[in-house]
Q: What sequence folds into this?
């Protein structure tokens, strides 16, 4: 394949004005495909370390529907949610900041028929394509390791993409206010506690009453609820709340990011 | 068949954004293929008599700062039109409003017969923009920059590839096709930016200080390419603070200073109206040229005193130089030259263009 052959992508590229921006990112990443692989490796390594080591030290877990599952089976959907979060955030925060402030890619893009909202949609779409790849691969690995106990698990991959939509949209909106690379420490500061405490490694019931409300307010907790319900088949109404929450957060982020791009670039 | 105005609104579908060059007629009825493949001349919504850019009382404010303070501009099809002015005069702000990437604060503006406030995407689709700072995509190669950019205009991949190869030939970058943008010198980057701005076969090519920061050789190459585009019928709109650039490229220009237009016309007309035929420049070994100026001011129609020299404006510069020597004055340097736009600018604003 030559470096200019883009035919791995759908033919009707002109259908959405944002699509060429996705193509642009594909052209760039095709040279650095190794970066793609590393993004998938991290949560997988977590999963293996838990499955090989920690699972032996921890007992079984009892789900809301009364079934008992292994610790790895409990943690795996949370790793799926976290990997979707990280996958989408990388492109929409660091990637967007670099193109916005340093590389000035969007200044060139907005001199074409594309609008600020096309930039926001194009970047988010690409981040979600990446998140989708991770999600599908991760669900396949979970199934191969016997960590899913329901056909609902097939929906865990799209659920992970929804998590990517929420975090990608919110992350991109926040990125438009970033002044320097140092400001990204705030994102790390928000991500790490969320990764550790969003009912990822232990259930919500372990928290004292008021803390439960705080944990439930985080988007990753909502993502974990969704993925865990689907991978174990223990469904509940709280999953509908999670879907609505993630959809709303992602949409809000997309709208805010579009407006901010306009303010910053079309002055 | 030419698309109608409504066809051009909103994002285009791939491949039918604009008629292919070979199928269209220029307003004069000449098949555009014979004009040139790279030409920007195609059937347009704005008729031949309607200006491509029409600004009336155009104002741009950033907070309390008024960058553009009510300017009137009319750019006609096929001409090369220039904004001449020093840095900070409001040239770039005006260009950005015309390019539909900056909101108009006051006055009216029509570009290609459309309103930038509501038809931004449609206008941008038919403009070529070569910004002052290169906004090339440094993560892409030279050729990929053109391929990807063409896609933003809704062109098919095959069409992008065809135009990329043609344009790389036009700006003489054929041997750099697979180079990374970072490897290019300033002159090569500018040529690539020009090629990129032509990928949608624009009707109006806008260039913001196209040769600022380039060495003399690179400047001449850029001028040569722009001159060819002009010959092919592409309408050029450029800003510059170089008088030689304005004289070489522009059919008509406006002199802009502090957000307002201070003069308008062809380079020759401006020089004729605001200056004399020749200028005699005198440099003396003194700290204050004002004192010297007093002794020779009666020899010329007009005298300008700069920190390092005295300018005597007269139709016969040699005669003035002769008379200065006859008065027993011996300048360290004497230069007789023809008037330039620099002199026009000095006359109108009392300041030099390039400081």
A:
């Amino acid at each position: 394949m030559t470096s200019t052959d883009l035919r791995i992508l759908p033919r009707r590229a002109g259908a959405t004005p944002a699509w060429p921006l996705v193509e642009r990112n594909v052209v760039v990443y095709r040279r650095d495909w190794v970066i793609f692989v590393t993004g998938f490796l991290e949560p997988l390594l977590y999963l293996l370390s838990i499955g090989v080591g920690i699972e032996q030290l921890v007992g079984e877990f009892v789900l809301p529907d009364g079934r008992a599952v292994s610790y790895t089976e409990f943690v795996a959907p949370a790793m799926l949610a976290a990997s979707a979060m990280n996958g989408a955030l990388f492109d929409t925060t660091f990637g967007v900041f670099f193109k916005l402030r340093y590389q000035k890619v969007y200044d060139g893009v907005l001199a074409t028929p594309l609008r600020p909202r096309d930039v926001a949609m194009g970047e988010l779409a690409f981040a979600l394509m990446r998140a989708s790849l991770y999600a599908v691969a991760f669900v396949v690995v979970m199934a191969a390791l016997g960590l899913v106990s329901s056909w609902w698990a097939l929906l865990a991959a799209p659920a992970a993409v929804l998590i990517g939509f929420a975090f990608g949209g919110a992350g991109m909106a926040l990125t438009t206010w970033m002044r320097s690379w140092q400001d990204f420490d705030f994102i790390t500061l928000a991500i790490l506690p969320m990764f550790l405490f969003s009912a990822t490694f232990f259930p919500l019931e372990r928290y004292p009453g008021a803390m439960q409300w705080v944990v439930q307010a985080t988007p990753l907790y909502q993502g974990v609820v969704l993925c865990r319900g689907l991978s174990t088949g223990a469904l509940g109404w709280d999953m509908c709340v999670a879907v609505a929450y993630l959809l709303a957060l992602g949409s809000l982020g997309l709208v805010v990011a579009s407006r901010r791009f306009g303010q910053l670039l079309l002055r | 068949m030419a698309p109608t105005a409504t066809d051009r609104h909103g994002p285009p579908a791939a491949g039918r954004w604009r008629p292919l060059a070979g199928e269209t007629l220029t307003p004069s009825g000449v098949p555009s293929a014979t004009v040139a493949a790279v030409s920007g001349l195609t059937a347009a919504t704005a008729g031949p008599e309607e200006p491509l850019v029409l600004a009336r009382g155009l104002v741009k404010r950033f907070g309390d700062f008024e960058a553009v303070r009510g300017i009137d501009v009319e750019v006609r099809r096929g001409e090369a039109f220039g904004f001449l002015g020093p840095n900070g005069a409001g040239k770039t702000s005006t260009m950005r409003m015309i390019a539909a990437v900056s909101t108009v604060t006051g006055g009216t503006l029509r570009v290609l017969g459309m309103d930038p406030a509501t038809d931004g995407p449609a206008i941008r689709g038919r403009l070529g923009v070569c910004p002052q700072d290169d906004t090339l995509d440094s993560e892409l190669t030279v050729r990929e920059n053109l391929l990807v950019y063409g896609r933003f205009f809704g062109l098919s991949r095959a069409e992008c590839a065809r135009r990329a190869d043609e344009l790389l030939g036009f700006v003489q970058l054929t041997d750099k096709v697979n180079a990374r943008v970072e490897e290019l010198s300033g002159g090569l980057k500018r040529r690539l930016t020009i090629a990129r701005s032509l990928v949608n076969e624009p009707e109006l090519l806008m260039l913001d200080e196209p040769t600022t920061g380039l060495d003399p050789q690179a400047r001449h190459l850029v001028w040569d390419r722009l001159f060819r585009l002009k010959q092919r019928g592409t309408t050029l709109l450029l800003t510059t603070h170089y008088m030689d650039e304005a004289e070489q490229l522009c059919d008509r220009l406006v002199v802009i200073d502090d957000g307002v237009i201070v003069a308008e016309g062809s380079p020759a007309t401006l020089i004729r109206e605001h200056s004399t035929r020749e200028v005699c420049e005198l440099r003396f070994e003194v700290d204050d040229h004002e004192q010297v100026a007093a002794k020779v001011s009666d020899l010329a129609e007009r005298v300008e005193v700069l920190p390092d020299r005295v300018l005597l404006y007269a139709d016969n510069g040699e005669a003035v130089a002769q008379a200065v020597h006859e008065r027993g004055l011996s300048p360290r340097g004497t230069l007789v030259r023809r008037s330039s736009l620099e002199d026009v600018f000095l006359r109108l604003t009392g300041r030099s263009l390039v400081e």
